[in-house]
Design a protein that fits this description.
The longest helix is centred in the last third of the chain and has 68 residues. A hairpin with a 6-residue loop joins strand 1 and strand 2. Helix content is 70%, strand content 9%. Strands 1-2 form a two-stranded antiparallel sheet. It has 315 residues and is mainly α.
Length: 315
């Protein structure tokens, strides 16, 4: 019963982690639509300017044709972003066992980094916390204790008898010749103890060896599980620290890409360059705006995986 309770706790924590990761995918897919639509609008504006330059002879018609191709590609990006949101909604509904025809949308407008586990926490402290709280380890401890108890029973099995108890109650009477009379109540209580030695003692030895092997297997599985938990905690902490740095870099890259796009437009408006030159700035801005929510989603996912490896100490 103890092991089954711990196993149920582990399943519940796994489902909580899966729901969190599915929601992060939905939250990361939602802003991708707005980003793709902005990129489409910027490309359309640039296409109009390029077309005007081509008509006046200040630019090339090939550049105008290229921008029209880019507009078509940006339209596909919008459709792909909408598809991602629908797929993420279906996956979250599956994890939550929801039967709804409506598309799920996140409550938050923007995805932001979260700190379930402090990034400056000591790895040794996290290991101690995880090894003491992990439900799989607690289940393993129950299984080891059960195997040890089974071995102890097998060791003392020949010395412990099987006791059979019986109780009967009826009437009893008799007489001379064919006369039956003088009935009285009668109660009988029986007790019997039986010692069993299986296969002349060879079966007892085999049973003890089998029980001892089960103890060793349970202990080996426990050690393997401890190694796995330790690896997951160390891996989760490393990923959380690295991905938080990636979030900061992506945030800085958005600012520089935005500045580059604005400077390119300013040069074009002052007649110092061709509109086609701003296309690369639009692409870079779109890439960085897409990279930021993806980096935040990966960072938050690492936090939830680390939280699960620690046995979900918060909540």
């Amino acid at each position: 019963a103890c092991a089954q309770t711990r196993a149920a706790d582990a399943v519940a924590q796994d489902r909580r982690r899966e729901a969190a990761l599915a929601y992060l995918e939905l939250l990361e897919a939602a802003p991708a639509i707005a980003i793709a639509e902005d990129e489409l609008e910027h490309t359309r504006q640039l296409a109009c300017i390029t077309d005007a330059f081509a008509r006046t002879g200040e630019g090339l018609q090939s550049d105008a044709d290229r921008l029209q191709t880019e507009v078509a590609l940006r339209r596909n990006n919008v459709l792909q972003a909408q598809e991602r949101l629908s797929v993420a909604s279906l996956r979250l509904a599956e994890v939550l066992s929801l039967d709804t025809p409506q598309q799920l949308v996140p409550c938050e407008v923007n995805i932001t980094p979260i700190d379930l586990v402090p990034l400056d926490a000591s790895r040794q402290e996290l290991l101690r916390s995880g090894l003491s709280r992990c439900p799989e380890l607690k289940e393993s401890q129950c299984l080891v204790a059960e195997a040890c108890e089974r071995l102890q029973r097998e060791q003392y099995a020949p010395l412990v008898p099987s006791v059979l108890l019986g109780l009967s109650y009826d009437g009893f009477g008799g007489g001379t010749g064919g006369t039956i009379s003088r009935f009285h109540d009668r109660a009988d209580f029986d007790a019997m103890a039986v010692w069993e030695i299986r296969n002349l003692g060879l079966g007892e030895r085999a049973a003890r060896e089998a029980a001892g092997a089960q103890v060793e297997q349970a202990r080996f599985r426990q050690v393997r599980l401890m190694d796995r938990v330790a690896r997951e905690i160390a891996e989760g902490l490393t990923q959380s620290q690295s991905r938080r740095q990636q979030v900061e870099i992506a945030e800085q890259a958005i600012a520089t890409a935005q500045a580059s796009y604005e400077r390119n437009l300013q040069r074009i408006s002052q007649g110092q360059g061709l509109p086609i030159e701003a296309l690369q700035a639009i692409r870079a801005l779109s890439v960085e705006r897409t990279e930021y929510p993806y980096a935040v989603m990966k960072s938050n996912a690492a936090q939830f995986r680390l939280q699960r490896a620690l046995g979900w100490p918060c909540g």
